[in-house]
Write a structure and sequence with these properties.
Strand content of chain B: 15-25%
Radius of gyration of chain A: 50 Å
Largest sheet of chain A: 5 strands, antiparallel
Number of strands of chain B: 12
CATH superfamily of one domain in chain A: Histidine kinase-like ATPase, C-terminal domain
Structural class of chain B: alpha/beta
Shape of chain A: rod-shaped
CATH topology of one domain in chain A: Heat Shock Protein 90
Strand content of chain A: 15-25%
Shape of chain B: elongated
Distance between the termini of chain A: 60 Å
CATH class of one domain in chain A: Alpha Beta
Oligomer: heterodimer
Helix content of chain A: 55-70%
CATH superfamily of the largest domain in chain B: Response regulator
CATH topology of the largest domain in chain B: Rossmann fold
Chain lengths: 469, 222
């Protein structure tokens, strides 16, 4: 099995390219999120820190106010013992240290960033840390500085960013993986479809493109279905053509061989009477062959549609009456009656000769399939659509065969021993199609009804008037 | 009566010419449209039988030219082109009748007679009489031995057409076209049953209307 032509390789296939594009977009989106998170988290960490420092400074100021300098000193000393405590620096009015171990924190009132270096501190191996400091002076001349570093906030931010990076990387991998799998699957499906098409091209008309329901490939599923519908139609056309060809050959070959037999009989016959009989029989056979040919030609003539140019107003009621009149005596001979229900003129645009033939074919079928003593009803009505119908009380056609009976050369009797070319209903259908009318065949509880319904008159006029404007 | 046959297929031409000569007609034969037109204008015949597909000049163009040159004889197209379009085109070109190949000679013979008898006088006859059968075309009455026979409209038309062609074969196809306007061949015996009804109504026990097997019907005095 050769690989179908023009098949793109996986990494050049549109599906995979799309996935790669999505992965790149995802990377950019995650990076942007990280930057935003960085800035906003830093800002909010700083805010929180300021809040904390301010609370601390407020608490100490309150204590100083209430209990005096020594109490504050003791309180600070106690706080400095705790692990992770802020830095403090307290001086008296003359600027001397009361408590604290970071003289660098001394400065003007308000907020500042201060760089501390303490080689003795085992926590900060770098030896220097940025801390945020709030300095305040009190009425008695004492000055208090409280400071704390941003390390904790920074650690949380760092963790957030790293989680973002991991999730981002995982998403990119998943997207690329799905892209890879979907693309590989879709390429396989496309391969299957092209192989199916090639197989059909090679003559296996019954091969179909696979239809599988897959979440990511719903579009390919509908493409496959569309292709399959086309292949169904193709198969039915081709097999129809084959059957018609075979049937034409059969339908003409059989009577031709009968004709030949009759002529042989005529040659062998003794006496002029027998000879004449055989010759007359041969003539009948030849007539049958010509009729079959005529029907085939007529069918293709109708299908070619040139009769449309001659369309005139035709009264369906008149057709019903003419046919009832023509076939009436014949029906009576078989003890049947033809009833006409046509109360008013039913005008349609059409070819009278062809419509006459169509209804005659339906009527002949009805008469052929009805039992003696019954009646066939020919009716022409105006509503809901202009239509003409032929209804009999015969056995009708099984519902599953109704589609088939309009096919050329279809005969319900497969042995083909009955007369007729099997073209009657095909001709009716072709004539109905030519007139834009529908042919409806229904098997009723008691009998069979064939109806040809035309488009409503207004529509017809609209269609036929348009070109003149 | 002279008939001009313009037909390029020799087999058909010989078959038709032989048949027509047997009927007592003089037959001229041309093998292409130009020759046909030449003969038709030089020595106008009483009837033209023209094939549609002819070498040098096709039948329709030939007839148009002949009509333009003042040839008024009835013309019958004989052709393998049997579609309604073809027929309409032939009639438009001045053809009077149209017969599709393959045809039975009986059909051609009947149509030739019908065309030749389309004399203006015949159409004006108000009363048709054959033996003791009288058909009044104005009063639309039929009398047999002075006794009125009630006929339905269609039966009257049928009898009228047969009587207009007294002594000549009228084919089934001609009746279908003339009486019902059918241009197709119904599978059933509708003509036969109508004729047999007509026969019984006019009290035709002694066979005024006879059936010619493979050809059609003839009405004649007993």
């Amino acid at each position: 099995m050769s690989s179908p032509p023009n098949r793109p390789d996986l990494f050049h296939a549109s599906g995979f390219r799309l996935a790669a594009f999505y992965a790149a977009l995802l990377t950019i989106a995650f990076a942007a999120t990280a930057v935003i998170v960085w800035f906003s988290a830093t800002a909010s960490a700083e805010n929180a820190l300021r809040q904390k420092i301010k609370l601390e400074a407020d608490a100490l100021a309150h204590e100083l106010d209430a209990e005096g300098a020594d109490a504050v000193k003791a309180a600070i000393a106690a706080r400095m013992e705790r692990p992770g405590a802020p830095e403090y620096w307290l001086t008296n009015a003359s600027g001397q240290r009361l408590i604290g171990d970071a003289p660098a924190m001394e400065g003007p009132n308000g907020w500042r960033m201060v760089s501390l270096s303490h080689a003795d501190d085992i926590d900060s191996a770098e030896g220097a840390e940025e801390i945020m400091v709030l300095t305040r002076s009190f009425p008695n001349g004492m000055r208090l500085s409280v400071g704390e570093d941003l390390a904790e906030g920074r650690k949380i931010i760092g963790m957030t960013i790293s989680i973002l990076a991991q999730v981002g990387a995982a998403s990119v991998v998943v997207v690329l993986l799905i892209g890879f799998l979907v693309t590989r699957n879709s390429l396989r499906r496309l391969d299957d479809i092209s192989l199916a098409l090639e197989s059909v091209g090679a003559g296996n008309l019954n091969v179909r493109a696979p239809v599988r329901r897959e979440f990511f490939l719903s579009d390919l599923e509908s493409v496959s279905k569309g292709i399959n519908r086309m292949l169904d139609r193709n198969e039915s056309l081709v097999s129809g053509l084959r059957r018609v060809t075979r049937d034409v050959a059969h339908d003409l070959r059989t009577p031709l061989s009968h004709l030949r037999q009759r002529m042989e009989q005529a040659r062998e016959a003794d006496g002029p009477t027998k000879k004449n009989e055989a010759i007359a029989a041969a003539e009948d056979k030849a007539g049958q062959i010509i009729n079959t040919f005529d029907a085939i030609l007529r069918l293709s003539e109708i299908e070619a549609g040139s009769a449309k140019a001659r369309f005139k107003a035709v009264d369906l009621s008149d057709i019903a009456e003419t046919l009832a009149d023509a076939y009436g005596p014949d029906a009576e001979q078989s003890d049947m009656t033809i009833r006409v229900e046509a109360l008013q003129p039913v005008l349609v645009e059409g070819d009278r000769e062809l419509l006459m033939q169509a209804v005659a074919n339906l009527l002949e079928n009805a008469l052929k399939h009805s039992a003696p003593g019954t009646s066939v009803c020919l009716s022409a009505t105006l509503t809901p659509r202009p239509s003409i119908s032929v209804m009999d009380t015969g056995k009708g056609i099984p519902t599953d065969e109704i589609q088939a009976v309009v096919e050329p050369f279809y005969r319900r009797d497969q042995s083909r021993t009955t007369a007729g070319a099997g073209l009657g209903l095909s001709i009716v259908k072709a004539i109905a199609d030519l007139h834009g009318a529908d042919l409806r065949l229904e098997t009723l509880r008691e009998g069979f009804c064939a109806t040809v319904s035309f488009q409503a008159k207004e529509k017809l006029y609209r269609v036929s008037m348009t070109p003149t404007h | 009566m002279r008939i001009l046959l313009i037909e390029d297929d020799r087999e058909t031409a010989e078959y038709v010419a032989a048949g027509l000569r047997q009927e007592g007609f003089a037959v001229d034969h041309a093998e292409d449209g130009v020759d046909g037109l030449h003969i038709a204008t030089q020595a106008p015949p009483d009837l033209l039988i023209i094939d549609r597909m002819l070498p040098r000049l096709d039948g329709v163009s030939m007839l148009k030219a002949a009509r333009a040159a003042g040839v008024n004889a009835p013309a019958l197209f004989l052709t393998a082109l049997g579609t309604v379009d073809d027929r309409v085109e032939g009639i438009d070109a001045g053809g009077d009748d149209y017969l599709v190949k393959p045809f039975a000679f009986a059909e051609l013979r009947a149509r030739v007679h019908a065309l030749l008898r389309r004399a203006p006088l015949r159409e004006e006859k108000a009363e048709l009489v054959i033996g003791d059968l009288t058909l009044d075309r104005l009063a639309r009455r039929v009398l047999r031995s002075n006794e009125e026979i009630k006929l339905q409209a269609r039966e009257f038309q049928l009898l009228e057409f047969l009587m207009l062609n007294e002594g000549r074969v009228v084919t089934r196809t001609m009746l279908l076209e003339e009486i019902w306007g059918f241009r197709f061949d119904p599978g059933t015996n509708i003509v036969e049953t109508h004729i047999s009804r007509l026969r019984s109504k006019i009290g035709d026990g002694a066979a005024m209307i006879t059936t010619k097997r493979g050809a059609g019907y003839v009405i004649a005095a007993k």
